[in-house]
């Protein structure tokens, strides 16, 4: 969501008058106003890294999908149950780490 033009030009402002300068909140000034900071947990940083990696992947491997579709339609698709079982075990092992 993007919010435009809140509080007039330049974003929120402090009220003018005693103690107020009309400057944007969080802006650095001669009074030494500290800027807001955010710290991410290790889990949040890892999730952000994974999200960025996933965004770099192609959404759909069209050629692979079409190959599987043809195999299913022609009843030639076969599942290697040993390979499937091994993949499941490796996946579950990765979840435990």
In N-to-C order, the SSE pattern is: HHH
- Termini gap: 36 Å
Mean pLDDT: 79
Counted by DSSP, the helix tally is 3
Radius of gyration: 27 Å
Category by helix and strand content: mainly alpha
The main sheet comes to: none
Low-confidence parts = 19-23
Percent strand equals under 5%
Counted beta strands: 0
Give the helix proportion (percent range). 40-55%
Shape: elongated
Keywords:
97 residues; mainly alpha; 3 helices; 43% helix; elongated
Description:
This protein has 97 residues and is mainly alpha-helical. The protein has a domain at 42-96. The protein is built from three helices and no strands. It has helices at 42-55, 62-73, 81-96. The longest helix is centred in the C-terminal third of the chain and has 16 residues, at 81-96. The protein is elongated and about 75 Å long. The protein starts with 41 loop residues before the first helix and ends with a helix.
Summarize the structure.
By secondary structure, this protein is mainly alpha-helical. 43% of the residues lie in helices and 0% in strands. The chain is built from three helices and no strands.
List the helices and strands and how they pair.
Layout: H1 42-55, H2 62-73, H3 81-96
């Amino acid at each position: 969501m993007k919010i435009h033009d809140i509080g007039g030009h330049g974003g929120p402002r402090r009220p003018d008058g005693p103690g107020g300068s009309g400057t944007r909140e969080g802006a650095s000034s001669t009074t030494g106003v500290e800027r807001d900071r955010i710290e991410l947990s290790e889990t949040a940083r890892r999730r952000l890294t994974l999200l960025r990696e996933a965004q770099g992947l192609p959404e759909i491997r069209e050629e692979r999908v079409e190959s599987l579709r043809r195999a299913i339609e022609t009843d030639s698709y076969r599942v290697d149950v040993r390979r499937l079982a091994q993949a499941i075990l490796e996946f579950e092992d990765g979840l435990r780490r």
